[in-house]
Amino acid sequence: RAFNQDSSYCLLCSLEKLDDEGNFKGKADMFSKRTIKKAEVVTSVDTASEALAVSLGERARVDLAYMSELTGKSEEEVAKELARVIFQNPVTEKWETADEYLSGNVREKLATARVFAENRPEFAINVTALEGVQPKELDASEIEVRIGATWIEPKYIEDFMRETFETPDYLFDRNLVGVQYSDVTGQWNVKGKNADRGNSLVNMTYGTSRANAYRILEDSLNLRDTRIFDTIEEDGKEKRVLNKKETMLASQKQEAIREAFKDWVFRDPERRQTLCAKYNELFNSTRPREYDGSHLKFPGMTPDITLRPHQLNAVAHQLYGDNTLLAHCVGAGKTFEMIAAAMESKRLGLCQKSLFVVPNHLTEQWASDFLRLYPGANILAATKKDFEPANRKKFCSRIATGDYDAVIIGHTQFEKIPLSMERQAAMIERQITEIEMAIEAVKAEKGERYTIKQMEKTKKSLDARLSRLNDTSRKDNVVTFEQLGVDRLFVDESHNYKNLFLYTKMRNVAGIAQTEAQKSSDVFAKCQYMDELTGGKGI
Length: 539
Description:
Coiled coil: 425-472
Number of helices: 21
Distance between the termini: 35 Å
Structural class: alpha/beta
Helix content: 40-55%
GO molecular function: ATP binding; DNA binding; hydrolase activity
Pfam family, one: ResIII
Protein name: Helicase ATP-binding domain-containing protein
Domain Helicase ATP-binding: 303-537
């Protein structure tokens, strides 16, 4: 009790081993053996491969100057020895490992490398290597195109209408019938749904007396089931009631349209070739990166614990990759992966202060695990008393003013630390500005009124959010999140923040909320700030 307000309280607690019930089991290992491994500084190596491993372990990147110093060879000699192991990126002029360069959008990288290789022969090796890792081209039999896929251009839907519904050309020529898609709202619109009145294919074969084929097609494009309602009068008020019989008929016609589109879309050879090429370019261009952490040494980690290969690779992913999700099964060692990544990030100069957001009841356990893996770490862990309103402000100030390797706080504590009002307002204002620009663009192109109305509805909801911002009653008037000095964020049990608002055209989809939990929007906003701060590498 005398020490529980001290920032080293968790270190004091780690001097004893306790069982699951909190009973004393014995003294910590530091009383009987060495628990901190001495850092070994490598000053020279024999081969370029060894130099690369040291460079990645000490600098977290391919540093040719450092590798040259280690080997005593020139940078050109080192690069030549490591040909096809490291590559110079023609865009950034920086050297990258093969697993980094030969991953991502490799089709785009290949096109870029070919352009550079025309004038600079040294990039020919890049072209050859990239050609060898291109994903296999998918053909029509391996691609499923559903009606409503947003990568299909509206002109193809119009062609489908011409051939399937036999829509007269003059209706298209006079702009009485047409198909439009709004990138802003994600909505499809079939214009002139009632212009083709005497067409039996529209009213009978692919439509009903209550919903013609054009309306059903529009619903299908927007991933909606067609529903037919009757208006009845009840207690002097009009009420809409679902007509189950007509809805079932419309549903059958909708399925017929979907099947007709599936049969039609790849029937024409030229169209098939064009769509397959576009699909491969959009969705079959990425090669995932495989991370190798075998070269990592972890100075300061206790020698009693050795990370498994999958844990080493996960740490490498966090160090060298972008924002990372650790989705291992329970018991796979995610805690140590995050702790090791945080400590290595600070040692390598990739970050200054890491913040761990964990379930409230696990803050002290996390602190214990942290010090078990890194006995010399300088950490600040929230205790139950720090969650009390009287102490919360003081605790946030300690985070901001202390030079800690890591700070461990609970989910509830994290939610109480606000972003600055200016940042919250700026984020919403930026979205509003984008919507306003899109509305002006549609008006300038004399676009359909439906598109403008959809965007105005979106803008109205953003205006409402701006007026109330996030509910400030749940925030303390303390140091803001930006002022904490945190540049790495680790969230344990992140599925607790999954209920973020998602706009979708689909109805009744289980698991997709049309409302959002405030804690989820709060974390999302903080993650956006971290992305700005770290370039998408800090979460």
